[in-house]
Amino acid sequence: MQYVLEDLNVSFICFVVFLVINLIIFALARGVYTRNQPCLLSSIILMNKLTDVSFCLLGVTGDDEFYFGGSVYAMDSSPSCSIGSHLDAYCPPSKRARISSSYAFSFNIFEEEKTPSIEVLPDECLFEIFRRLPGGEARSAAACVSKRWLMVLSSVRNSEICKTKNESLNDVDMTSSNEDLELESDGYLTRCLEGKKATDVRLAAIAVGTASRGGLGKLSVRGSNSMCGITNLGLSAVARGCPSLRVLSLWNAPSIGDEGLFEIAKECHLLEKLDLCQCPSISNKGLIAIAQNSPNLSAFTIESCQNIGNESLQAISRCCPNLQSITIRDCPLVGDQGVASLLSSAPSALKKVKLQALSITDFSLAVIGHYGKTLTSLILSGLQNVSEKGFWVMGTAHGLEKLVSLTISSCRGTTDASLEAIGKGCHNLKQMCLRKCCFVSDSGLAAFAKASGSLESLQLEECNRITELGIFSALSNCGSKLKSLALVKCMGIKDLVLETPLLSPCESLRSLSIRSCPGFGGASLAVVGKLCPHLHHVDLSGLCGITDAGLLPLVESCEAGLVKVNLSGCLNLTDEVVSAVARLHGGTLEVLNLDGCSKVTDASLFAIADNCFVLNDLDLSKCSITDSGVAALSRGEQLNLQILSLLVAPRFLTRAYLPCENSGKLWWD
Ligand SMILES: *[C@@H]1O[C@H](CO)[C@@H](O)[C@H](O)[C@H]1NC(C)=O
Ligand SMILES: *[C@@H]1O[C@H](CO)[C@@H](O)[C@H](O)[C@H]1NC(C)=O
Ligand SMILES: *[C@@H]1O[C@H](CO)[C@@H](O)[C@H](O)[C@H]1NC(C)=O
Ligand SMILES: *[C@@H]1O[C@H](CO)[C@@H](O)[C@H](O)[C@H]1NC(C)=O
Ligand SMILES: *[C@@H]1O[C@H](CO)[C@@H](O)[C@H](O)[C@H]1NC(C)=O
Ligand SMILES: *[C@@H]1O[C@H](CO)[C@@H](O)[C@H](O)[C@H]1NC(C)=O
């Protein structure tokens, strides 16, 4: 945009008008401060007789509440934004200081007289005036006058503002008077617009209000305003006002297209994080512009963007050497070409890669396996076109030397053979999570455990071909570093152990979590207890099949002393095993959850009161306890209880005892 005024006469008029506007703004600003709204309103009416007025009271910084509705500014193409009234006076609800109908009436009368006003000036003139306004405060006040003024103001680039010497002093005060705008610990102004608040007018107001402070550092838009959601206009205003934008996150912004990104690319060269989700109008053109102008881009996410494809990823791999993290999910145009170019670019800093629901094939995985030398974290999910060969090559290529964390979810290419290859190829792998991998069986799991010597944490979710035998051999075959095992909803476990297999124990395991595996019963638990003598944390929530006899061997074979025990939903457990836990592990037990163990009674509480001196969190919801049990807890003088949960007050309880003096929280329903 060129706003060069060649005609001297026009410049002179502009200057005179500029002075007048300064006076108006002075009055306006005072009006805002004194909140003397009726006065303010009438003074504006008297001074301006504006014809197209959308008036509101705005926070001094101009970036908060911007209420509008009546007169639709030309940029709001959607007619649904219009209410169609002639009255255009708006105030924030909290300050809605009752502009009486008589004022509204007089307003309309004045509107009828068409005398010359500053509104007849063309935008170019206003632009020249506005960029000379002294200080962000004056600009914010001017932005309150009308949507037209706001949009002209928001078209002033940050670099085009004629700064006065004292401006920085004003700005300090403005920051402190601002509530909504967060100043994060890293010193960036941050703003998140959600739902109905995500409109162009708000974005423009933010841009104008923050421009004098260098603009926003981080902007998130979570749009769902179907009537007047943000468009390229709003994003362009942000680009002009916020040249130091570092983080841009746009979710659900169907009207944002390439033009908006062009403006961002042109003005914001410091961009470090870009996050686009459900932006169907953005295509490769916009992203390529960003890539070419954002050398510092380090994190990049695209999700459900139908028009972004291989070319964008190629441009990013060419232009952004600092890229450290990429997430690509559900983008139908992204194929092997794009993913491969991202991963094979020469001086790579890439650490985290997440690929989800893409139509990439074995080729991409082979490239990851060969070139992913800097990768530390890899998540592969829902890759339906990758076969066993792809995963096998990824493992055997021996490129993933630094990989620490790997998650594979819903990929039918993960089989016993490919899993073993991954175990052999990734020497540094510490965390492994397999989710919904229905082709992995016991032998594959055991081979993987044997091959991956650095493994510290193994999580298996909904891997239904794996049985308890696979778990046992994984535990006894894994290296000496495995600390944590979690099984969630593995339906293949059936508790059919007839004889205890001869296995070497897993001395390193500290945390065992078996959640919602209904088949996991006493026989399996006994074996696990023997295999893992040094457990600290045991979570068996939702194992409704286990009984006292099943759990006792594990409780008895734990040598190290249990610290956290979660038995929520283990319906068949009774006082016998809870007392054993209290007796054997009272010296170490800190957290005990018995939520839903309806067979647990006061006898357990007596044992707890007598033995558990470091217990600080006890959940007795839906247990069959009575007053005397709780009273026993409250008498246990050495008890250290801080949280006691009794949600759904037990029917036996008639009076509430506070268990002990230092009880911090008592949950009661
Ligand atoms: C700048 O601020 C100083 C003191 O804060 C004041 O004396 C001076 O008049 C101001 N100058 C302008 C141009 O506003
Ligand atoms: C990129 O970031 C580095 C360090 O964070 C900084 O020194 C450099 O100036 C930035 N480059 C650009 C173009 O902003
Ligand atoms: C992206 O690359 C893949 C694989 O190279 C190719 O099949 C696909 O057609 C490409 N998509 C576009 C939009 O060019
Ligand atoms: C991916 O798999 C689907 C069906 O599973 C198939 O229709 C499609 O052609 C495959 N795409 C590629 C690139 O192989
Ligand atoms: C115990 O398990 C339940 C159910 O999985 C969970 O909601 C709860 O947070 C767990 N409690 C602790 C202390 O881990
Ligand atoms: C465990 O409890 C369930 C439900 O209360 C019951 O159906 C089942 O028979 C019990 N199992 C044992 C072994 O007691």
From TrEMBL:
Which residues are in the F-box/LRR-repeat protein 15-like leucin rich repeat domain?
228-465, 532-645
Q: Which residues form the F-box domain?
A: 121-157
Pfam families referenced in this protein's UniProt entry, alphabetically: DUF7885 (PF25372), F-box (PF00646)
List membrane-spanning regions.
12-33
An example GO CC term for this entry is: SCF ubiquitin ligase complex
Keywords, comma-separated and alphabetical: Membrane, Transmembrane, Transmembrane helix
One GO biological process this protein is involved in is: SCF-dependent proteasomal ubiquitin-dependent protein catabolic process
Task: Identify this protein by name.
Answer: EIN3-binding F-box protein
Organism this protein belongs to: Actinidia chinensis var. chinensis
